[in-house]
């Protein structure tokens, strides 16, 4: 019997609830988990927020606006903490400014599912396996003007969720993907009672061929995403800044549907669904929902978040994330805080689910640690 860890599909965040027939699921959904505490404190968003070391996941174009030469970020996110203690997402990122207008970024994400015991009978000595998934990624960002930058990036993805069974091949499934992103940050604008700065961004991520899990040719879509958003910083004075941001996300993956018209999505429909190429699937994803435009809108998640910064040393954050009940039902509030001392910053975040379906990150405290090196440069 094939031993995929369906646990990864059932328990991961891509779709917390799989009971909706047309909820879109993909392989390697760990790529959609907010890996850092700053972004997760603002409702799992980061495409248009101010730059930090973890921008590699959200929008690498922001690295071109970095104030310091070098930044390093590490984070730890426990998963299903109320049930188990050894499932977690670990992330590490680094960026390096080449000059005032360009930068390189690198990142690693590792999702470990802990130890799992396998046995054929209750009395058999268990075989211990440790399934995991990881990605290694890099990006190059370049300012095209004083207020706008773009980036391109690549990602290697490995999903080791199969177990050796007899002579059956148990190699990890691998894939490559690319990202394209853009980021706009206006100059500081003087208004009547405060100054302000507009921000906007987009990121098309995980564009690549399907990932193959077995020798029989079973392939699954990567979580190709289109993220876009905007925000505004209220600069009341040099010491007090309030940023308000919003973000939208659309999976560029086809909607599961009843191809043969028998009124149900069954095995034949699944086989035909898998015949769609990743390239065609990207374009089909904008208009293939069976219930038309209204269902296409249901497939768009949205988030709102805010961050108050005092002296760039103390930060308070809050956010809300919403996904339609028919498409996964992830709905939650988040809170977060950050503390910066010299070149070191510590961030924390906490999630409260508001949906009937329990979120695997509910009541979980997430941690991030950032180090910035080099002389700080003011860039308008």
Low-confidence stretches: 1-19
Number of strands: 19
What value does the average pLDDT take?
Answer: 86
Strand order of the largest sheet: 1-2-3-6-7-8-10-13-14-15-16-17-18-19
CATH class designation: Mainly Beta
Number of domains: 1
- The percent of residues in helical segments reads under 10%
Shape, please?
globular
The radius of gyration computed from the alpha-carbon positions, rounded to a whole number of angstroms, is: 21 Å
Q: Helix/strand-derived class?
A: mainly beta
Major β-sheet annotation: 14 strands, antiparallel, barrel
The CATH architecture designation is: Beta Barrel
Q: Tell me the distance between the termini.
A: 60 Å
Structure description:
With 380 residues, this protein is mainly β. It has a single domain (6-373), classed as Porin (Beta Barrel). The chain has six helices and 19 strands. The strands form three sheets. A 14-stranded antiparallel beta barrel has the order 1-2-3-6-7-8-10-13-14-15-16-17-18-19. The radius of gyration is 21 Å and the shape is globular. The model is unreliable at 1-19 (pLDDT under 50).
